[in-house]
Amino acid sequence: MATNVEETYLYSSPTTFKVSSKDGEIFDIDDSFINQSKTIKNMLNVLDIADNHMPIPLQNIKGTMLNAAIVFCKYHKNDLLSIPDDEDEDDFERDAYEPRRSDDISEWDKEFIKQFTVEEGTLFDIIMAANYLDIKALLAVGCKTIANMVRGKNSDQVRQMFNISYDPPGEGLNTPRNSVTSKESGDNQLLTTQEKESRCKTPSPELMYD
Amino acid sequence: MSIITDLSKIEIILQKLDHSSVSHQKAILIGSRAARRYLPHFRDVYDQPHADWDLILSANLLLQWLKQQQINIQTTTMIIPLLNELDLSVNCTLNNKQIFDFLIPRSSTSYSTFLLEHITEWSYEISSYIGCHCCIPIAIAHSRLLLILKRYMLYYQHQWNKTANDYRQLLEIKQNECQLNVDLEQIFIKLFINNNEILHGKRPADIDQFSFSVDVFSHDIRMKLNEQSTLTRNDFFTLLLKDEQILFVYQLAVASSSSDNDILIGLEKICTKYPLWLADFTIDNWLDIYNIYVFYRKYKQNILLPLTSIQVTLENQRLFQELPELVMYNILSFITDTTDFHSLKLVCKHWYTILKQDSFWKELYLFRFGSKGQFSQYSQISRWKLLYFWKLECDNLSSFDNEDEILKLIDTTMQLRKIKANSVVELWENLTKQNQFIEPLILSQIHYILLNSYYYYLNEDILESPNKYTAKLIVIGLENSRSRTQMLITLLVGDYGSSRFEMHREQISIECDSDKIQTLTFDGPRLYDYSWGTYGYVRLSGDALLSIEPNQINQYLPSGICISLLSTMVHPARRERFIQYLITTESHCSSSLCALCDDMCY
């Protein structure tokens, strides 16, 4: 932990920086964000930016997501110390033996993540942003939310939830009607064992048992 | 073919049909539409034009149908074989593109007459399924019948490709086949073969040996064959490995097909001209053989595949295209219920392919449990998925830390997964010595339980007397598809009684812990309502353990099937002998039934 404190001092002279998102929005970030986003922390260490008027470009993240991440970090600035560093090997070992829980999302986090679950696809965006910025807590909340969405659902519900089609485009049920017969007689098609099995076998008894 | 005339005028067809004499009251639906009924994985394609109606029926019924549908008929053709013992065939297309194929028996010796005469044995009654399409009383052919038909159809050049495809699917449902009289079957096969031989020529004799030109084979196959140009069945299966057998058939087929290089012609020749055992092998492995061909066409190189089938490995293992792998593993590592993965697997083809790959589970395992996991040798792990599932289900239950022990538990779990639901039913039938009717739902549940049970403790104390075999499992699916039951199965093997009445005895006791603890203890004689009295076996008049009623362990499964299921879950070191013991006990009991006690009972 001692080294972390030193690192913090390195860039602590200007306590705020500017970052710009993919769509050009500029945000002020402070310690709470820098300490939780390992990407930014590393970036600042490497770049050694003295001039805090030049926004740091974050080309992978949309403004709305960046804003959300900043809000998230502001709220969580105090539990920073309890989040272990994942490169700490002892911790990794400990983590491996404990069952992973996804029902421990705090009320605030639930409310926070709710804004993303409404619109299709934005949950992935916030996860991607968290992944890029390397904000462990936010990433965990996003991943847990998806895991919770899947839990106890049957394949049909999962399909609907993520808007997935049963077959790849142009195959199976998605085949254009008239080409059904011509496709079946086409002998250039590589039949794979997987296809064979998915066609013939019931992959799991779920169909009948549920 | 010269023995056939074609007709397409409906008036003439009606006229010809009048002359046909055999009359029956029902029609049998055969072919793909009937097959659809029995293929659980067959997806519904109700309105697709290639799902045609294949019906066997009498001329009377067809006349009736033609009159009803006359305005809807677009085209119709009739095929009249010149030989009188062959069936008539009428093909109709309706205005709405539906295709109907009818087979009308003309003589009493045709196989379709035979089928119509034994309609109850060969078919299921069906009412609502097709009611709206025609007013003919239709029954649907048994899966067994479809199987026989397809199998023997394969020996003739008629529609080989389509038939082979259908046959593959039908084989999958072979296990649920109905009980049919063997004599009936023999007669049917004979009639069917006769009929086909007239149409498509004679089948090859069932010979052991055949010869070929050795030049057509690649160098390594020739080496294996010692440059000889004859091969017997025995040599084929012993000299060649499975890969080479497939390659052999492939090269033989390529050589047999003429200039246009179509392997299907070659495969057809193998099935029609070569010995039956080779035909059977070809039919069973035709997809693998065909894959080599497709592969060759694509890459223009002849390779000996390391596996008997091409396994496509997806390099991109992303379930969601938007999210990178690491994030996806992160998400999945929060899914702790293994049954959730079942529904993920069925989401779409892409997910199914990914979730079937062991490399995927390896990555997930390493992500979740760390690269510093317990296994010193990753190369010895061959079932990452099972390992991952086992970890999720059993890690907190198991006290074993040793990696060899864990791998042994996983192997044992794998053995259990290989046991078929049907073998459990067979055991029940063996124990009760009578056929048992099993609802498909129950069969499916047994299958599910066998696939979702995990051993987490195994122990054998063979030094103790009696020998004690202990197995602990977590069983998923006993009550509902997500319920977990911890089970302790103890098997005691030893001698019982004293002096001259000493008997060998094996006693199983099962302790179940779901919401409340249930126990069940029985030994061989108890299973058959016998008990060991002072002077020998005594017959009890208690509740039979094998009766149909549900037992205390599980209220949804019939008692007998539950007993059979649990008996297959005992410690694997003793499993076979224990089952053997159970099966043979009854005769042993009844033969040494104490005469005195017997008298007292009556």
Task: Indicate the topology.
The complex is a heterodimer of chains A (210) and B (602).
Chain A: H1 2-10, E1 17-20, E2 26-29, H2 31-36, H3 38-47, E3 56-57, H4 63-75, H5 89-97, H6 107-118, H7 122-133, H8 136-150, H9 155-161, H10 180-185, H11 193-200, H12 206-209
Parallel strand pairs in A: 1-3
Antiparallel strand pairs in A: 1-2
Chain B: E1 4-7, H1 10-19, E2 27-30, H2 32-38, E3 53-56, H3 59-69, E4 73-81, E5 88-94, E6 99-104, H4 111-117, H5 119-122, E7 123-125, E8 138-141, H6 143-153, H7 160-172, H8 182-200, E9 209-211, H9 219-224, E10 230-232, H10 233-239, H11 242-256, H12 263-273, H13 276-284, H14 286-299, H15 325-332, H16 338-345, H17 349-356, H18 358-369, H19 384-394, H20 403-418, H21 421-432, H22 440-451, E11 453-461, E12 467-476, E13 484-496, E14 503-513, E15 517-523, H23 524-527, E16 530-532, E17 537-539, H24 559-567, H25 575-591, H26 595-601
Helix pairs in contact in B: 4-8, 6-7, 6-8, 11-12, 11-14, 12-13, 15-18, 18-19, 21-22, 21-24
Protein name (chain B): F-box domain-containing protein
Pfam family, one (chain B): F-box-like
Domain F-box (chain B): 317-364
